[in-house]
User: Fold this.
Amino acid sequence: MKDPGFSLNCRGKLLDLSTPIIMGILNLTPDSFSDGGKHFEEKSALDQVAKMLKEGATIIDIGAQSTRPKAEFLQPETEISRLGKLIPMIKKEFPEVTLSLDTFYSEVVQFGFDEGIDIINDISGGNFDPKMFETVAKTGLPYILMHVNETYDLMHKKLIEEDLLLKMNRYFSEKINELQSLGVKDIILDPGFGFGKTVEQQHQLLNETEFIDFGKHPLLIGISRKSFIYKPLGKKHSEIVEETQKFHQQVLEKGAKILRVHDVAEASKTVDIFLNR
Assistant:
């Protein structure tokens, strides 16, 4: 498949996606499923950003609310409080970094935009906040659109569909049309691994990645430490680095442009192998 040469306009700076890049995860949450509480303090968060950038991350994705099953549901004010002044602190310390904000609240998006974020990462696809899409449009930032069930309460419920790929492509098409009608130009697609899909369906998506939107928009894959990999193997989330890299290699070969990961160094090696194969 010919590389379409995607790029993202991040506040006037073009982020080149002609070759795949790494998005490192920075959880500012005490209850995240894999690293809760580790980077809750500002110094710890800055140290982790430095580590991930050194290991090869291009984007740092900041999240102030865990979306694991049975996580505590937070209001936007709590997310904003947890973010504090970290965004401008990171920008000052690491001026070359591209910052993504993981939230499903338009109010938090506006706060993050004012503080200096470059990308919006919304796991809700605009479903959890009716003002999300119009707020995204006003910021002019690139937007990561994830496939997910319609409500917060249902986001982890496995709704079995006969043809997941067909349903997903219809979902993306409708959401993309809505976003573009509002003036949103840069849209990244995320199939939503770990959200409301069976183990079999998630492996189907890994095997058929190239048919998600048929390569019309850049694709982000987030399978890091996901239960559909470690539970069938009887392992812990921290024990599947090798298996995860095999799947990363697979999706890179099928056109993925961004890998959202906890283990940046290992994912960077996988991208290097892919580029030098």
